[in-house]
Amino acid sequence: VQFRYDPEHVALRETVRRFLADVADETAVRTAMDSDLGWDPATVARLADEVGILGLAIPERYGGSGGGWIELGLVFHEAGRALLCAPLLSTAFSTVALRSAGDDVRSAELLPGIASGERVVAVAAIDNGTPATATGDGIEWEVTGNKTWVADGHVADTYLVAAGTDRGGALFAIDAAAAGVSCKALTTIDPTRRFATVAFSHAPARLIGELGQLPQITGELHGIMLTLLAAEQAGIAERVLEISVEYAKTREQFGRPIGSFQAIKHKLASVQIELEAAISAEMFALWTADNDRDNLDSVALIASHTCSEAAQLACSENIQVHGGIGATWEHSAHLYLKRATIDRQWFGGPQAQLEMLAAHLDAASPSG
Amino acid sequence: MTDLGGDLEAYRTGLREFLVSADLDPWRNGYREDVADAIEFTAGMVGLLYDEGWGRYGYPSEVGGLGGDVRHVAVLYDEIAAADLPVAGQHELLTTLAYPMIRYAPELSATYFPGFLRGEEIWGQGFSEPEAGSDLAALRCRARLDGDNYVVSGQKIWTSYGIAAKRLVVLVRTGTPESRHRGLSMVFLDADAPGVTVRPIYLASGRAELAECFFDGVVVGAERMIGTEGQGWEIAMYLLQFERAVYGWQRAAMLLRRLRDLIAAATDTPSTRERLGTVYLDVLSLRARSVATVRRLAAGHTVGPEASADKLLLSAAEHSVYDAARSILGPSFAIGNGEELARWRENWWYSRTTTIYGGSAEVQRGILADHILKLPKAAR
Q1: Is any Cβ of chain B less than 8 angstroms from the Cβ of A269?
Q2: Claim: this prediction has a pTM higher than 0.90
């Protein structure tokens, strides 16, 4: 087991960081977050063309670069640092779902457009009330149900919808323009990302993979997405600590930089400790996602919890160190905390995740 | 007729009866996301409380009050929160500005305070500056005596409800730049006077809760001085006692009310029960401390550096309640439509500022360490 990034990973990270510094600085982020779409299409096109960000984890035969989850995780880390506004969440969700389903026809149909940035494919897996159901004759299907927390659902071309059938749950592709599909934007705490509820009423659907495959796909989504969101939170924590340190060195009160006060020193040193743990947990989970899939469920929970605690602490202390200005809209501090909050709350929040982790411990205990 | 100014329990009983009456229904469970709307909304409630007398206790008759002391004010805020009525911005500002104005500027108060108490106008407080936050004594906003007037030039920041304020209580430098806290004075300005510019500051919640104020050669009559020249720091310290005690009490009352809302929204699980129990203790710790401080103020005692403990207990209780709300609401705290979610988010963001405003948590701990524990001072 090798717990360090390969030179090509380091190079990728540097490329992405440089690129985002150019095309996605804070001014660009604020313009994008105030727009209806939520991102700048020209920037997203460049991210897809010049860096290949959207196709990193997509196999080469479907227009991607055939990388692993590590590569995509590094991008999430950088996206967190830069507060990148782009359809990154939907890209990751749909890539994970399609790779897990292993359906050649649907992959060939959907993945190239995702990789090129021409198509937004959003996963609609979380039921809003009554679970969604699909009925059909084995060839033609239709889906009825309401889904919520659909990342980038407001502009998706296609939805990948989890629905139950009489032969087990499955994933279906539904065109956003099809009859019986309607979507409504959701209010979110995080202005840098968009979520929607989507209602399907006898919407024509295409089966992805096989009936009964849904538990496997959602399990994969859970493990990989927790890992990627952990990576984003590690990136947020890392960047936010830099911002805090910079401010503590320059802001003066009582005739000296506030960073010279022990209260501030200890605060930021504590963040540094949490950050170290987060970076390690992030790396471990990314490595596990690519190399030790059987252990990912518990490792992803560990990374998610560790990184989310680090991000919360870093973002909170960043506000505290900045004082009043850190609590204002014009400062970036709240944008980081808001983004970290979505990442933290997505899969039920820390309490639910700790309980899941405890369940893993029960299963692994010698008496079990 | 019972003298309600002398009988706190009779005041509470009568007030409670009034607050649950249909007269208050237009404000019950009311919430306005926009700050200017919120101030306009609660002005009617504050006016009604004045007209019916309940809002006038705790203040002397010379300034429009009906007698009693600060405990009456505490009871008023307690009962308002318990009756599911909103905490008015007008009342929040009264907690800090009322008593220092009445004590140090009785004549100005006789003229202007009734309008404030009736909710017809709201006052703002201008203490901090961009370069004088934790280090308040470094402030630079200047008032220069020119004949019978002072001319005020400089900038203030973090004025609560500043965009709605009709008058401003401003801490200014009248001494030399090096005079620190000795060369400060406090003046009472009209926000619409020539040379005053007020700009909203949007907080992370998106609400323009605060404002920055710019003063460009603002002429103010010498009779608008609060106290005497050079007395500014003393008045500011007097004011801070009420900010710690009465404002803290008011927040605690609201926290109890929001805790009730949270219990109603929560699913009953062992971990939720434990969490809510811990939160309740945090709020009760604040109330236990705060009630003692309010009583001391009512008895005319000076509350000194020990009030920093009140402030720290307040921020701990605020964090505790709203962090629990975030945890219990789960993903819908982050993503979801509706006024109640918007309100939880706004409350949560505001709770983040409790360790910053009115002297940061670090400054408060420093005060406790230096002045209560009498530890050797650090080389600042």
Answers
A1: no
A2: yes
